[in-house]
Structure formats: C-alpha cells, structure tokens
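Hi Y.,

Following your request, here is the sequence exactly as I used it, all 199 residues.
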Amino acid sequence: MRSTSSPPPPADVGALPDHDRRFRELFDNEFRPLLGYALRRVGSPDDAADVVAESMLVAWRRIDEVPVDGTARLWLYGVARRVVANHRRGELRRDRLAGRLRQHLVEALPDHAELTGSAAVIRQAMAGLNDDDRELLMLTAWDGLEPREAAIVLGVPARTVRTRLHRARSRLRKSLGDAFGEGGHVREDQPQRPAQEER
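Below is the corresponding structure, written out as tokens. Let me know if you'd prefer a different format.
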C-alpha cells in the first residue's frame, strides 16, 4: 500500500555534510564574479559557461584545498585562469587541424574552374539527371561500389539497383548525345551545354 505522507522538506544547508555545505556556499558567493572573470577572457557566453562549470567542478573535487581565509575567490580565479589557458590551447589545436584539413581538401579536390574536356561534359550531363539517377551513378562509377553495395547504401534490394542502374546509364548516354567521338574523347565541334540546375 502506497504511503500518503508528504515528502520530506528539502535539507537545510546547515544540515548538509560539510563538503556539500562548503561547496554550496562557495558557489553561491563566487558564481557571478567567476562568470564575469570568464566572460572577459573568452569569446562567447557559452565558452564562459564552460569555464565556470569546469572551474566549479575542480572546486567540488578539491573543496578541502579551497582557502577559508577570505581568498577563495582568488583561488577560483587561479583555477579559471588555467581552464582558460587550456581552452585557448584547444582552440589553437582545432584551428591548426582545420587549416591542415582545408589544405588536404584543396589538394584532393579538383578545381572546378580547371575542369575541361570529358570531365566537364560528363558533369554537365550528370547535372541534367534526376537526383536518384545521379546518386546511383556516382556511387557505382565515382565511389567504386558494386551494385549490391550501392543497394545497402540506398536501402533498396540489389535487383532494384541493377534495374535502376541500367536505366540511369541509358539516360546518361542520351544526355551526353554525340558529345564523345568513337575514341571516347570530346568532339571539338561539340559545344558544351550549360549545366542545368539540380532537381
């Protein structure tokens, strides 16, 4: 049988264990000054909130080291200073990594302005296909997937992919028209059509 008595009242701060009481008092007294310290040193309120949270976590773990002689705020500022320094080092590492990744992408990806000849013609023809045809052809021709593998990516049966692939290739050939000569090269007398907008 469920008890009908009301829940106990919240614990009084004075009744809390010493560790919890000291931390709660520290938090209540120093939260706003610490937040101001962080806001003046980092780039956004979200980052400042992270600095305060991490600093308070350190205080919680090391509450016995927090001074009781009126210098607790200074102790917290020292902790926050180290947290901010770590935050800045992390930002620098992320920026350097992002720079390296951008450089790798520049080296790995072709410059669309330099696409000429057959690659440009094929891209223009692909742009004229519907999204499903284009994705299927890219998975099989550009990403090198077998039809059964493309089926897994697309979430459809392999036999469906084989049928769609046959039709997509036919539509691509029709879109290319006679742009390619017998040797597979772009005919010099074939004007390049402007790429249609993707549907």
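Helices lie at 18-39, 45-61, 72-108, 117-127, 131-142, 147-154, 158-176.

Thanks again,
Q.
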